User: Which sequence fits this backbone?
């Protein structure tokens, strides 16, 4: 485990408890990392979802994995739905409005950015969504001709909650991450992701990359599905850090994420996302995700990002976009490092193992014979 821990785990990983999945000789297995040791939990519950729903958050009943360095690390979730909250930070709100008004054209973004920041930047950073102050700002922006559907979900009463990725389609630490081959303006979105049980209780957090295609979404919000949900376009990991006395929701609220993009062309981009600048509390976002919906196998929820890259990469005024081969590292002190290399969604490994394949595999291994231990 030493090499994997050195590459991906937080400094205090031997004190925390972590949940995830690895590829074993017979198939995928849930694991728990506790006191610096890795335990295969398949004999307790066949899936991460089943462990969570059984309330089994310790390594009790698991089988120690000796010499786990060579384990293939998978995305740390399985049957959970993958949801995301959008436009939850003032800076990213401005960038969404810019995308919309630039009609997906990065060359038109710089002038719009300067104008919008001067007119509404300060107001967005101080207003409470859904408040009387937000309603007053909305009326003023409508009068100025600056209102946008993105501002509606940024400061209105209802958060944007969308489905990011199908069940079992996410990729994990070390995997290639995909962008559409026909996208010319896109970026990573470094985020904290909550793991939530079916009863609405958040049980842990991990890192995520909610890859975004700015050209597609900028042309029309109705293209959100194409902008967000493509092969290998959602990464999570390395593992979920479970909440306990030493890691709580307040650690999420105060977390800082660092992003580094390293291109094969020598280009380098750094960015940060500070969760204390989020406009909506994480628990409110969980509540809104569940207000009219149920998730019997639980769900994960991307909380949004402060990061919105504007650094020019190739031509002045055209901003940042990915190139194939970019190495993307997302890091946070209590959650570790999520590392993925960029390719196209067409060139990424195809997603072939769905729910049916997982159930067949678990049945063949005799892991569906009894319910998870409680």
Assistant:
């Amino acid at each position: 485990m030493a090499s994997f821990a050195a590459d991906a785990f937080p400094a205090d990983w031997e004190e925390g408890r972590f949940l995830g999945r690895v590829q074993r000789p017979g198939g995928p297995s849930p694991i728990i990392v506790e006191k610096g040791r890795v335990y295969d939990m398949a004999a307790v519950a066949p899936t991460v979802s089943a462990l969570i729903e059984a309330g089994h958050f310790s390594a009790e009943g698991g089988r120690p994995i000796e010499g786990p360095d060579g384990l293939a690390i998978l995305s740390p979730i399985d049957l959970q739905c993958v949801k995301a909250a959008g436009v939850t930070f003032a800076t990213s709100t401005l960038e969404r409005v810019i995308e919309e008004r630039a009609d997906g054209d990065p060359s038109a973004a710089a002038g719009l950015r300067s104008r919008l920041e001067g007119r509404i930047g300060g107001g967005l950073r101080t207003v409470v969504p859904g408040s009387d102050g937000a309603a007053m700002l909305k009326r003023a922006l409508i009068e100025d001709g600056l209102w946008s559907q993105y501002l509606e979900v940024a400061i209105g009463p209802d958060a944007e909650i969308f489905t990011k990725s199908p069940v079992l389609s996410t990729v994990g630490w070390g995997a290639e991450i995909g962008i559409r081959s026909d996208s010319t303006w896109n970026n990573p979105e470094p985020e904290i992701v909550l793991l939530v049980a079916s009863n609405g209780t958040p049980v842990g957090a991990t890192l995520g990359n909610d890859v975004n295609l700015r050209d597609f979404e900028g042309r029309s919000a109705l293209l959100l599905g194409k902008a967000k949900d493509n092969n290998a376009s959602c990464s999570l990991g390395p593992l979920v850090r479970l909440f306990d006395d030493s890691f709580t929701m307040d650690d999420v609220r105060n977390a800082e994420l660092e992003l580094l993009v390293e291109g094969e062309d020598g280009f380098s981009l750094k960015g940060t996302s500070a969760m204390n600048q989020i406009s909506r509390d994480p628990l409110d976002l969980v509540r809104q995700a569940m207000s009219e919906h149920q998730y019997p196998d639980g769900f994960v929820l991307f909380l949004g990002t402060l990061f919105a890259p504007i650094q020019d990469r190739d031509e002045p005024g055209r901003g940042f976009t990915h190139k194939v081969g970019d190495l993307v590292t997302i890091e946070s002190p209590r959650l570790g490092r999520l590392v993925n290399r960029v390719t196209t969604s067409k060139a990424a490994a195809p997603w072939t193992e769905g729910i049916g394949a997982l159930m067949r595999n678990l049945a063949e291994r005799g892991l569906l014979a009894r319910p998870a231990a409680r």
